[in-house]
Amino acid sequence: MLEEILFLLLSVTLFIIIFSKIIRHNDSNYIALLIIEAIGIAICFFEIKLNLVANLFFKIIRYICSIVIPLVIIILEINGIVFSEMLTIFLAKVLLKLGDTKTAKTILVKFVAKYKNSYKGHILLAQIYEKEGGMRKAIDEYVMALDVKGNDYDSYFKIANLLKDLGKKDESIEMLQNLVKSKPDCCEGSKLLGELLCEQERFKEAASVYQDALKYHSSDFDLYYSLGIVFTRLNDFNMAKEMYEKAAELNHKLYGAYYNLGQICFIEKDMESAEKYFEKSLYDEGLEAKSYYQLAKIYVIKGMKEKAINFINKAIEIEPKLLKKASKEKFFEEIKQYFTVSVKMNEKDEIKENIEENEIEEISIKEKEEKNARSYLEETTDLVQSIKENTEKQNDLKNIINKEKLEEIIKNDELEEESENDKFEEIIENDNLKENNKTEEKNQKELENNQRVDKF
Predict the structure, then answer these.
(1) How far apart are CA 60 and CA 39, in angstroms?
(2) What CA–CA distance (Å, rounded) separates 264 from 378?
(3) Cα separation, 105 vs 152, whole angstroms
């Protein structure tokens, strides 16, 4: 009997404490706990009223319901863990698993309205809004979570990412700069910041961000690859090559790095290395056609005509729009007639363009920058080739001009020589005339003298 009385006193005290929480917080979540307590108290009451001795099973039940559970919850709340928050988060997660997002959201909205300092409530609600596409509401919830927990760097990153998705790139950059300053080992933050800076063509700043991140993540191949892209856009091909090689060393399936390395080696006229890298990039479905195209160029330069024809036809077969490009390339001037792939350009191009437009909408900033770097290298290759062709044309023109000048000089010399000869002949003629005149005058005088003598 004494044990039952002590039990009742303790359980009723706990009941009153829990009931006061309902009154204080106006929180109905505690009602379930009161019901559980009431079950234990009722069992004890019936034992005393009916003068029964309960077996061990019922004793365990009433102690768990009326003493253990309430006591554990009170201790947890003393340590800052709110029972109502635990129950709400649990119910919301169960509902989300069952696919009832609407009810889960309603429960959480009501809960965070009462418990504004519920970090977990704000985070879960923010995640739901984010999945539904409610970016602004998600940002608001992450901000509230940050107000509760100031060092929540994950929420800080989430807000910056959502701002980026909303098109507020400058605000996102500012947040990320603060994030990496406070937490320099935040790899995701550094990567996103670098991508946004690259998008604004602030390549030197992006390089600095990636290099700082490598101090904490020296084995992250993605950082090396991103640095390769940055140095490519800065025209520092030596550094770009070094970064791509390091990235490929850490990840042997990083085919984009192999393709870019092939382009750099091609620019540097290292055809053996370029060939090796392009052969490796063939394993990437998205780069297969481009790799065949570049290899065809190399084989043209090497004089391997049959292999060049084979590879250019493979490239066109995979990516039909390359036929138009190849037809304009000086590299393929001698083998144009051997293009055997038949393509209906209008239909194929239209389909390809539609696919590419859809892909552009879906690709991330990182993929855009990767594509831009690749295009930049291809344009640089074309520019180098164009400069080479122009130089050759200039040399040919100089030779033609020099030849014309030489012919003109020879012609002028001949004309001068003819002119001098004419002048010389004219002088001789004049001298002869003068001589003849003198002779005539002399003869005339002699004749006159003879006539005078005859008179005398």
Answers:
(1) 12
(2) 9
(3) 22
